[in-house]
Amino acid sequence: MTVFGIPTEFILFAVTLLGVALFHHHTLPVALSGLTAIILYKLAFTGFHAGAGLAGLAGHMAGEWVILTNLLGLLLGFALLARHFEDSGVPQILPRYLPDGWLGGLALLVVIFVLSSFLDNIAAALIGGTIALTVFQRKVHIGYLAAIVAASNAGGSGSVVGDTTTTMMWISGIAPIEVFHAYVAAGVALVVCGIPAAIQQHRFSPIVCDAPAGATIDWPRLGIVAWILIAAVVTNIVMNLGFKELASAFPVLGIAVWVAILLATRIRQPEWSLLPEALKGSLFLLTLVICASMMPVERLPEASWHSALTLGFVSAVFDNIPLTALAIKQGGFDWGMLAYAVGFGGSMIWFGSSAGVALSNMYPEAKSVGAWLRHGWHVPLAYVIGFAALMLTLGWQPHQAKPITAAIETAPHFNPQ
After folding, report:
1. What Cα–Cα distance (Å) separates residue 269 from each residue in 76, 160, 221, 287?
2. 168 neighbors 233 (Cβ within 8 angstroms)
């Protein structure tokens, strides 16, 4: 069943994403309603990749549960990791080393970029927003807020631990090196949007580089951050090199992160009170990923640099998590180019990425599409220039692996008919 040639599943999914954008205070109920509608439609009319009816639904989820469980473990674990980093004292010390003038604003964006390469981009944006409140005397320009989101998304685009989208690629079997070249585009984009944003902020409210009195670094807590990241990276490398079958059958990566967190409680206790809210946000993202996994991707446009560029603009309106899930399921993309496109592209509007939504909760005045586009004009410009820089230097480097599709096709009860 199609409407103007568009499969009904895509229309239901688009309505769900539109509801998320319009009712951003009720994202989980909207996402769950959309998932329910898609499941009921597929039960009644089309069936699933693994077959028809409830058996097909069960087979589909049997092919997805490892990826979903890994993603849940990493999202919750990285929420605690980000608070460990925030409580380490490093964000309080950083202002002491920022230069004066507009260069200070640019340097802060670079710091956010670097933080996002090993912290979740949401955490990097919130840490940057917190520092900005201090160094700009609680007066932060909307154009600079857009640049903070852009810097956090850019920094996470080339790292499999820096963004939910790249983490999804990683746990789906895509090697970290295959997304690393996103930094070619991300670095160019950071400069293109960072300089005008820093000048905007300097004219609006100049930087004051004073660290709070008595601020110190909690080195054991900072060591815990490194320990958790090392545990995640080493586990993933070992699984991919020698135990691929186990990695595809059991959520080893998510469990390894939580083992590292629990072992570190002897040194410093994490902020357990963060988990209820983090769980709510994680369930929302997982719901969108499940919706995306049920789309008939064989009807999507063929993977190309044109479609990657387009997905970047689409991610400014629709959350980049489900877009990435669709692309991974389809396969054949240049993963570094895609990571940059859906990551940085989501910065063009405040609700286009989770980092933008999180920062806008801290700065409610940013929840205006008109103001964001008017003052953050440098972000879409930077997106296009960064994308062009990557195309002109490294070109389109597609990879044919289809990790999620392969997982579905090898799941129990899979029936290609």
Report:
1. 15, 26, 9, 30
2. no
385, 352 contact by CB (below 8 A)? no
Identify the pLDDT of residue 402.
47
Report H helices in 23-52: 27-41
Domain-located, residue 27: no
Q: CA 184, CA 60: separation in Å to the nearest integer? A: 37
pLDDT at 138 over 90: no
* Residue 44 burial by Cβ neighbours in a 10 Å radius (0-12, 13-18, 19+): exposed
Q: Give residue for tokens 């959520």.
A: 251
> Which pair of structure tokens corresponds to residue 402?
């289809």
In a domain, 6, yes or no: no
Looking at every residue in the chain, the average pLDDT score rounds to: 85
Is a pLDDT exceeding 60 seen at residue 84? yes
Model confidence at 415: pLDDT above 50: no
Structure tokens at 405: 């599709």
Contact 75, 233 (CB under 8 A): no
Range of the domain at 96: 64-409
pLDDT grade for 381, boundaries at 50, 70 and 90: very high
The β-bridge partners of 2 are: 7
Q: Is the pTM of this model over 0.85?
A: no
Rounded Cα distance between 208 and 202, Å, is: 10
C-alpha 154, offset from chain centre: 10
Residue 305 lies in a domain: yes
Q: Which residues pair with 45 in a beta bridge?
A: none
Number of domains making up the chain: 1
In a domain, 108, yes or no: yes
User: What pLDDT score does 316 carry?
Assistant: 83
Q: What is 365-392 written as a DSSP string?
A: GG--HHHHHHHTTHHHHHHHHHHHHHHH
